[in-house]
Amino acid sequence: MDEDRPKPPMSPEGTVPKAVVSRLSLYLRELQHLVQYGHETTSSTQLGTVLGFTDAQVRKDLAYFGQFGYPGIGYRCEELIAAIKQILGTDRSWPVALVGLGNLGRALLRYRGFGQQGFRVVAAFDVDDAIVGQHIEQIPVYHLDQLTEVIDELEIRLAIIAVPSPEAQGVATLLAAAGIVGILNFAPVTIALPSSVKHVEVDLAIELEQLSFAVVNRSEKT
Amino acid sequence: MDEDRPKPPMSPEGTVPKAVVSRLSLYLRELQHLVQYGHETTSSTQLGTVLGFTDAQVRKDLAYFGQFGYPGIGYRCEELIAAIKQILGTDRSWPVALVGLGNLGRALLRYRGFGQQGFRVVAAFDVDDAIVGQHIEQIPVYHLDQLTEVIDELEIRLAIIAVPSPEAQGVATLLAAAGIVGILNFAPVTIALPSSVKHVEVDLAIELEQLSFAVVNRSEKT
């Protein structure tokens, strides 16, 4: 699918605004839907309309990474999917460690959306002797004490934290020391880490705030 | 705290870009942290630095809603928190319905972050007779058949869907018919609804994609 196409260049300064990168994920999802529904090509107008952006925004975002459209055709969906995956680094499969197997951790083990985008949870960690040594959702559960060893052995670079808030910082520090370079933190607490470790805090209330904004502004217009 | 300050005006066209609204949530969180750590005032530079935006971006975003800074002082944290909450509609408490009490639903019931921002889950719904009629995390669990009646009685406007993907559309349609106007959908599937119902699809893989982008671009620079 990739045909030895040269790697899309970054912007001249080598930095891309975060908002552009997060829109890439949205474009990717929409392109994947289009392919599911049998579309072979699309346009910046079509992509933009579905997602609520202008066609100019779509073109400008993609232009950070190269030239993807064809005159008179638009974008070839499969080709643009492959290019965006390469840009996002999801053209490969990422083994992921999950720490914490309470309700949230177990829900994340079952979450299909990760696997669909190339993220495979390959090891789970907890301190509960009742589950350590078992498999949950076919994933082996290790004791937290084995973290460094397992991460090293399985060459894991990304991890998800789903432990209670008071434990989150300790786990994050352990993960960083074990060589993890990207952390997705679901504990509703900010963690401090060396700048070499990228981390994203998932704040689920933000989505509800966006909804309440939409609802309030809708109500007040009627 | 609100002192009858006039409601902040919207932009002349009455529309604010979605990205600006989502940054409001980030400013709010950071201001809440600052207050926790004893800060009474802040600046666009300080807010921007922590969040990775320029100070100009911060000022421009806030300017959509009014004039909040004071010469020689900057922003008064508590005052700006109150203003942003009013803009987002979280200056009030929102009762929320949660549908689906599998692992994810139960994790969401325990999630502290919602309550901290004014969202209270007041009713949960499932079809499992083993839990209908019980309380989980002190929240009453009703049968899905009671949805319309309970939503009406408790005057609920927002709902969270945490059911398996195949059930999500049916539940969404039920919720819309029951008078729900904002839906947060955790099922990894796109739902179709009348445009009068706002809905946000939570796609947890997007966060991992952002991480892999950061990690790939970090690795390739070293």
Oligomer: homodimer
Low-pLDDT stretches of chain A are: 1-13
Q: How many beta-strand elements of chain A?
A: 9
Proportion of beta-strand residues of chain A: 15-25%
**Name of the CATH superfamily of the largest domain in chain A:** NAD(P)-binding Rossmann-like Domain
CATH class of the largest domain in chain A: Alpha Beta
CATH architecture classification of the largest domain in chain A? 3-Layer(aba) Sandwich
The largest inter-chain interface, given as chain pair and residues per side, is: A-B, 66 and 66 residues
Topology pattern of chain A, helix = H, strand = E: HEHHEHEHHEEEHEHEEH
Q: Distance between termini of chain A?
A: 50 Å
- Main-sheet strand order of chain A equals 5-6-4-3-7-8-9
CATH topology of the largest domain in chain A: Rossmann fold
Overall description:
- The structure is a homodimer of 222-residue chains.
- The first copy, chain A, has 222 residues and is of the alpha/beta class.
- Chain A has two domains: 18-87, Arc Repressor Mutant, subunit A (Orthogonal Bundle), CATH 1.10.10; 94-205, NAD(P)-binding Rossmann-like Domain (Rossmann fold).
- Chain A is built from nine helices and nine strands.
- Chain A has helices at residues 18-36, 44-51, 55-63, 77-88, 103-110, 112-116, 147-153, 165-177, 204-221, and strands spanning 41-42, 75-76, 94-99, 119-126, 135-136, 139-143, 158-161, 182-185, 198-201.
- In chain A, strands 5-6-4-3-7-8-9 form a seven-stranded mixed β-sheet, with helices on both faces. Chain A has a two-stranded antiparallel sheet with strand order 1-2.
- In chain A, a hairpin with a 2-residue loop joins strand 5 and strand 6 (139-143).
- The relative contact order of chain A is 0.09.
